[in-house]
Amino acid sequence: MTWASTWAAAGALALASGSAGAAEPDASRASGAAAGSAGRFPDGFVWGTATSSYQIEGAVSEDGRGPSIWDTFTKKRGTIEDGSNGDVACDHYHRYKQDVRLIAELGCKAYRFSVAWPRVFPTGDGTPNPKGLDFYHRLVDELLANGIEPYATLYHWDLPQALQDRLGGWRSADTAKAFANYAGHVAERLGDRLKTIFTINECGRFVPFGYGSGIDAPGLKLPQAEVNQARHHVALAHGLAVQAIRAKARADTRVGMAENITACVPAIDTPENIRAAEIATRELNAGFLNVILTGQYTEPFLSWAGTDAPKFTAEELAIISAPVDFVGLNIYAPQAYVVAADHPPGFQSLPFPTSFPHMSSPWLMLGPEIAYWVPRLAAKVWNLKDIYITENGTSSEDRISPDGRIHDLDRVMYLRNYLTQLQRAAAEGVPVKGYFLWSLMDNFEWVFGYKQRFGVYHVDFKTQARTAKLSASFYRDVIAKNALRA
After folding, report:
1. In percent, how much of the chain has pLDDT > 70?
2. Spatial distance between the Cα atoms of 53 and 283, rounded to a whole number of angstroms
3. Which end of the chain, N or C, is surrounded by fewer C-beta atoms within 10 Å?
4. Domain encompassing residue 35
5. Do the domain assignments include residue 113?
């Protein structure tokens, strides 16, 4: 999951000059008849849930797994709010069969998980570790045996520590090459059962927070030029991985990425403000999504970056923009409400009032309309045909009642409102193909440790008992009806 993008915060008011080249005016959209007027989603809509390796697996020293940057980072005093780490987490490495049953009980037909790079290549490259990949063989087989389609993510932040030590992690283009080798290895060995592979998850979080502000692993505070260069190397890693997967996996394997897109919303739904939101969507996502989907950095982005702009070649841009089959968008909170401006770059981001509503996490501002506007604007700006909402969910206090039940009404409210807006988008013909709820169960929530709970299953981290929350019943009902209303 994600916080608000630091590029959005820095860039929304700092794009100083340059023509923004707005997207074309909106053409008439499809009626979306398949998503009927009774709150129904289109036939064949994919309902899933999502997790990530370091947040749930535990078993950090078993079967040859090497250390990751998060293993190292969590051991430093003061980095994690509750002083915890992912050494055990949800013990999913040993309890995966039980957890697959939980997915099945929700009625989900898809599960998005991540492969731990240091399990497969303990030092990041070199000789692979067969025992590490064996776990994912078992997991994929168990999912398929339960009628659940595996959606694999190859990088969800757990970079092998050896690559950080030897190369500087994402500061080096050699890390991108090592990632491509790892991606090809996984695709070759799991590709007979994997139809869908995500390369990179949330570059917009782990680069600025890990290499810029020092909040996330590896905890660096680098100059902006080096942060921008690291982001470029991640984009290059994505492109090289796409090539490797195409070469090693089945011909029908689908490849894409999942990004915490900077979520822009027109403050008022006028044609001028909607056009401004299109410009903002492109420019505030110019450093990763736009360069992947268009093969170029925009002029406003380069102007804003100035001498801090990433160094790149035409060959690298061609690799980065290798065609993808879909785009995954992680959405939680609005990050920019915009209005039209009569000066470059053509939009103005409005400040958030202190009274703006939020969930139990102060950063998670409540803006259900992003579930409508984000896919609509992304589809328009980049001419996307297949979009998945690859993460959406909320933390909750999750108080346990005397009878042992967890009535997380705030999460039910959040999901109902966001899914209502997503259904609105689908009904208008926006090409949203599926939704992955974050998260299946409570887990290690990065710098917050175990204090923030995002799961629809409660986890007692002392006993590892899983308990369904009210939100699990809500989500199960939505999936069963493929609709929000009866």
Report:
1. 92
2. 31
3. C
4. 6-481
5. yes
Q: Name the residue with tokens 């007027």.
A: 37
CA distance 420 to 418: 5
Is 59 in contact with 71 (CB distance < 8 Å)?
no
Residues 6+ positions from 169 with CB-CB distance below 8 Å: 69, 159, 163, 175, 211, 218, 230
Residue 160 included in any domain: yes
Question: Encoding tokens for residue 164?
Answer: 């950080």
Could you tell me if residue 1 is inside a domain? Answer: no
Contact 336, 374 (CB under 8 A): no
Q: Which residues contact 462 (CB under 8 A, 6 or more apart)?
A: none
- Give yes or no for a contact between 327 and 382, defined as CB atoms under 8 angstroms apart: yes
Say which of 226, 278, 391, 445 is annotated catalytic: 391
Residue 485 CA to residue 229 CA, distance in Å, equals 47
Beta bridge partners of 112: 50, 151
- Known catalytic residue: 202? yes
**106, 109, 110, 111 alpha-carbon torsion, rounded to 10°:** 40
The conformation of residue 422, written as its DSSP 8-state character, comes to H
The label of the residue with tokens 């490849």 reads 255
pLDDT at residue 27 tops 50 = no
Give per-residue burial for 149-172: e unless 16+ CB within 10 Å, then b.
bbbbbbbbbbbbbbbbebbbbbbb
Choice among 202, 226, 259, 445 that is catalytic? 202
Nearest to residue 419, comparing CAs of 35, 153, 4, 27? 35
pLDDT tens-digit series, residues 318-357: 999 999 999 999 999 999 999 999 999 999 999 999 999 9
CATH number at residue 350: 3.20.20.80
Kindly report each contact of residues 171-176 with a partner whose C-beta sits within 8 Å and lies 24 or more positions away, as own/partner: 171/211, 171/222, 171/226, 171/229, 171/230, 171/233, 172/233, 173/233, 173/236, 175/124, 175/233, 175/237, 176/233, 176/234, 176/236, 176/237, 176/240
Compute φ and ψ for 397, nearest 5 degrees: -70, -30
Structure tokens at 473: 């019943």
SS3 content of the chain, % helix, strand, coil (to 5): 40, 15, 45
Q: What is the pLDDT of residues 125-174, one digit of tens each?
A: 999 999 999 999 999 999 999 999 999 999 999 999 999 999 999 999 99
- At 424 the three-state DSSP class reads helix
For residue 254, the tally of other CB atoms under 10 A from its CB is 17
Give a yes or no: residue 131 inside a domain.
yes
The answer to whether 316 is a known catalytic residue is no
Total tally of structural domains belonging to the chain:
1
> Coil, helix or strand for 342?
coil
